[in-house]
């Protein structure tokens, strides 16, 4: 069939294909589909900013309207990536400023965003609508002021957990009075107080406002002013939720909350004072998402609250909820899909609350739709893990952090291999897994053979030998991201499975047993990988090759070695042998 | 060093195993993932779809650096840990990093700031010597065997602290410091007794052995109320 569908028809068909992986598959069918697809791709996701260059992106996809880029490896969240490592967004903004004048959305995660970058964004894209900066850093409120002042069509400004150099709250006042298109504003990570009257006026003139997440500096007494002006809110994050108990404040607040009939999600609640909790009771039956992870209230108050949230799908909470609270959760919230329990006092061995493995088992029994778990606790047993696995084969994400490194099954003192083995055996859809506790190479054998859909695996203080790493790298067909710290994994497993690394997005290994010699070998022989050695002790070339590297970050790339490396990062490439 | 990197052809028999102690592990075909936008080159992609084990290193011909033992790892030795990994601190000065395990437990910065424990300057990280020795094998292995910080608990106080033993040369100064650390009046030193856990896991009364012996064997400390 020499002539098939006209291009326009194909393009129209492709417009219904939105997922990145489907789009990528489409582009591989034949040359003409590749061409048609690339001209009509509107949204691009770059999982690793160094895997591809801005130029390659803009050359291949000329009509992009929405871009999402991720920078630093995940372990940067826990201070394992030194300051200045990289992930600077400016080159991307600069390239896109020229290539994509119609760009509407930029979403960045773990990238370094300067005020200059923000200013460039604000002046380069006349249709700019969405800016999401998740766990980013490097900018100040001055940069935000540029965005506010220049982006006339802005709908969404979300600063999710970014670290902002908070010079003042004045930036918010730069939004012009004529600007009424705000749909979503998240400033929860900001420290300083924004002008409340500016905020009030902003909310009042934004009829499409759906999401508003305030920062801690907004006091409780003022919340009702905002809520009354935005009864259409779907997601709301309070500021500090504390005040001396005053009946007028309470009744204003309760009234305002009850006026928000569409409210589905609540967050914020810093410094929560239990006396003010009942103000939200009327909203509870409609809530699907509740983030109480900054609320330092005890179990009885949490139980009272959570028992009223019959439609809850997502709960983030501190371990103050205790086993007893999780029992109540399991009994009341049958639609629960995601549970995250954070530690209130993580740096002390002895438990300060009565939260154990029993709470998680109870939730796994009582909540049939539970698919995503993040749980910090101080004791775990194989029996509990097996029970959880059997109860919830529909788990998709299971992240367990037993606070003490290498803690064994507290009942039998055995490693937790069997428990985690049961998780990967029963939970056939598992895509993300974080391990902790005492683990031998055996657990990696289970994971390698049974974790067929596993895409992301985090390992710390586990394993006995290279065999452990070999099991993972030679199995786990779907593995994309592997991050390892403080494990006795070394050269043999890496070298024997070098080809696997090209099928993954990235591998991070820190405080393991990989020698510089092995890194050189990998870097020289696999040109499609960037093998980055991060070592703050000075050049690894100045030491014998058998010396171990501090940190290793290996990722596939078509952009070649980085050119923006700080002095403590070395990319091993083909020329390494010549040095 | 010559290494053959063959292009993966599915018909090539995969006979190379990972020969570690002849465990008989079979090599597995590693399927290339084409789920990324990196695949710009359409023609090559069908060949690249399957990457076989052959493309990895032929284990027999790799020259494993001689310093690595070929066989099973047993104990971790100090040699295997980087000498100085606590220097890579990105966040500040408030955190006392020298003896702590960085980034553990894995909690983001914003949450750490709000943790109960962060009220105390030097409790912002998991410290070595904090736990029991993990049960099996070399759990609780100390990354820094010359650490002079030990954990101290006072009876009736939930939050534990750390004390740097190298700053002290006698039981008196140590007890005074500990009492002060927990906010008690220095004059009341006599109201407390100091016990410690030694290398063998036994709890002993401090003061019975010479200071030097004590220093070498102490693992953690407990400050108890002195009866009466």
Automatic annotation (TrEMBL), chain A:
InterPro entries: COI1_F-box, F-box-like_dom_sf, F-box_dom, Leu-rich_rpt_Cys-con_subtyp, LRR_dom_sf, Transp_inhibit. GO terms for molecular function: auxin binding. SUPFAM superfamilies: F-box domain, RNI-like. Pathway: Protein modification; protein ubiquitination. GO terms for biological process: auxin-activated signaling pathway; pollen maturation; SCF-dependent proteasomal ubiquitin-dependent protein catabolic process. Transmembrane segments: none annotated. One of its GO terms (cellular component) is SCF ubiquitin ligase complex. It is found in: Nucleus. The keyword Transport does not apply. Residues 5-46 form the F-box domain. Its main location: nucleus. It comes from the Eukaryota. The keyword Nucleus applies. Keywords: Auxin signaling pathway, Developmental protein, Nucleus, Ubl conjugation pathway. This is F-box domain-containing protein. It comes from Escallonia herrerae. The lineage of its organism: Eukaryota, Viridiplantae, Streptophyta, Embryophyta, Tracheophyta.
Automatic annotation (TrEMBL), chain B:
InterPro entries: AUX/IAA_dom, AUX_IAA, PB1-like. It is found in: Nucleus. GO terms for cellular component: nucleus. Its main location: nucleus. Keywords: Auxin signaling pathway, Nucleus, Repressor, Transcription, Transcription regulation. Residues 147-226 form the PB1 domain. GO terms for biological process: auxin-activated signaling pathway; regulation of DNA-templated transcription. It comes from the Eukaryota. Residues 75-97 are annotated as: Disordered. Homodimers and heterodimers. Aux/IAA proteins are short-lived transcriptional factors that function as repressors of early auxin response genes at low auxin concentrations. Belongs to the Aux/IAA family. PANTHER family: AUXIN-RESPONSIVE PROTEIN IAA17, AUXIN-RESPONSIVE PROTEIN IAA29. This is Auxin-responsive protein. It comes from Escallonia herrerae.
């Amino acid at each position: 069939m020499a002539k098939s569908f006209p291009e326009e028809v194909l393009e129209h068909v492709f417009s219904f294909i939105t997922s990145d992986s489907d789009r990528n598959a489409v582009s591989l069918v034949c040359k003409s589909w590749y061409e048609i697809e690339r001209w009509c791709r509107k949204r691009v996701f770059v999982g690793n900013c160094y895997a591809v260059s801005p130029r390659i992106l803009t050359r291949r996809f000329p009509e992009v309207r929405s871009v999402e880029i991720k920078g630093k490896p995940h372990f940067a969240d826990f201070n394992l990536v030194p300051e200045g490592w990289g992930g600077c967004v400016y080159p991307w903004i600069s390239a896109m400023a020229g290539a994509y004048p119609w760009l509407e959305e930029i979403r960045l995660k773990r990238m370094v965003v300067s005020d200059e970058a923000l200013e460039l964004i604000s002046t380069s894209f006349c249709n700019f609508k969405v800016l999401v900066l998740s766990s980013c850093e490097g900018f100040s409120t001055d940069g935000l002021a540029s965005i506010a002042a220049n982006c006339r069509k802005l709908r969404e400004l979300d600063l999710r957990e970014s670290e902002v150099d908070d010079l003042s709250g004045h930036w918010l006042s730069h939004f012009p009075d004529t600007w009424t298109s705000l749909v979503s504003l998240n400033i929860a990570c900001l420290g300083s107080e924004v002008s409340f009257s500016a905020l009030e006026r902003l909310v009042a003139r934004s009829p499409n406002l759906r999401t508003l997440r305030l920062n801690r500096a907004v006091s409780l007494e003022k919340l009702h002013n905002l809520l009354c002006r935005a009864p259409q809110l779907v997601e709301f994050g309070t500021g500090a939720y504390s005040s001396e108990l005053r009946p007028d404040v309470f009744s204003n607040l309760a009234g305002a909350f009850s006026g928000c009939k569409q409210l589905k999600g609540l967050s914020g609640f810093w410094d929560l004072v239990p006396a003010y909790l009942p103000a939200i009771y009327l909203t509870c039956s409609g809530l699907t998402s509740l983030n109480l992870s900054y609320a330092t209230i005890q179990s009885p108050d949490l139980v009272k609250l959570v028992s009223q949230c019959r439609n809850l799908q997502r709960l983030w909470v501190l371990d103050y909820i205790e086993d007893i609270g999780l029992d109540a959760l399991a009994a009341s919230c049958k639609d629960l899909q995601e549970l995250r329990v954070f530690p209130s006092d993580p740096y002390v061995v002895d438990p300060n609350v009565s939260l154990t493995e029993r709470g998680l088992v109870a939730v796994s029994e009582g909540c049939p739709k539970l698919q995503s778990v993040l749980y910090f606790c101080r004791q775990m047993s194989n029996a509990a893990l097996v029970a959880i696995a059997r109860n919830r084969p529909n788990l998709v994400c299971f992240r367990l952090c037993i606070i003490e490194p290498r803690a064994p099954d507290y009942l039998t003192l055995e490693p937790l291999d069997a428990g985690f083995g049961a998780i990967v055996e029963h939970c056939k859809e598992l895509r993300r897994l974080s391990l902790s506790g005492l683990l031998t190479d055996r657990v990696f054998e289970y994971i390698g053979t049974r974790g067929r859909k596993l895409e992301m695996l985090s390992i710390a203080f586990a394993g006995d030998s290279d065999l452990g790493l070999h099991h993972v790298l030679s199995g786990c067909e779907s593995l994309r991201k592997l991050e390892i710290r403080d494990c006795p994994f070394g050269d043999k497993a890496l070298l024997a499975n070098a080809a696997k690394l090209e099928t993954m997005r990235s591998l991070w290994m820190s405080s393991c047993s990989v020698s510089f010699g092995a890194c050189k070998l990998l870097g020289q022989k696999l040109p499609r990988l960037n093998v980055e050695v991060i070592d703050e002790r000075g050049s690894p070339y100045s030491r014998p090759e058998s010396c171990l590297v501090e940190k290793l970050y290996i990722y596939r790339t078509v952009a070649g070695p980085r050119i923006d490396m700080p002095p403590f990062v070395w990319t091993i490439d083909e020329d390494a042998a010549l040095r | 060093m010559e290494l053959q990197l063959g292009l993966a052809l599915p018909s090539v028999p995969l006979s190379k195993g990972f020969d570690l102690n002849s465990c008989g592990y079979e090599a597995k075909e590693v399927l290339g993932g084409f789920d990324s936008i990196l695949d710009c080159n359409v023609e090559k992609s069908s060949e690249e779809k399957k990457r076989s084990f052959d493309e990895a290193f032929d284990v027999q011909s790799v020259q494993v650096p001689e310093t690595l033992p070929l066989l099973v790892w047993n104990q971790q030795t100090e040699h295997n840990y980087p000498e100085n990994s606590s220097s890579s601190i990105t966040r500040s000065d408030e955190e006392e990093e020298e003896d702590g395990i960085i980034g553990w437990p894995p909690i983001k910065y914003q949450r750490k700031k709000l943790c109960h424990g962060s009220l105390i300057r030097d409790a912002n990280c998991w410290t070595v010597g904090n736990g029991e020795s993990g049960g099996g094998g070399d759990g609780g292995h100390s990354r820094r065997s010359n650490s002079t910080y030990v954990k101290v608990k006072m009876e009736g106080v939930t939050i534990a602290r750390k004390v740097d033993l190298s700053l002290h040369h006698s039981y008196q100064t140590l007890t005074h410091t500990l009492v002060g650390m927990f906010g008690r009046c220095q004059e009341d030193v006599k109201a407390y007794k100091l016990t410690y856990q030694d290398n063998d896991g036994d709890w002993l009364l401090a003061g019975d052995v010479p200071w030097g012996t004590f220093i070498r064997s102490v693992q953690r400390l407990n400050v108890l109320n002195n009866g009466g």
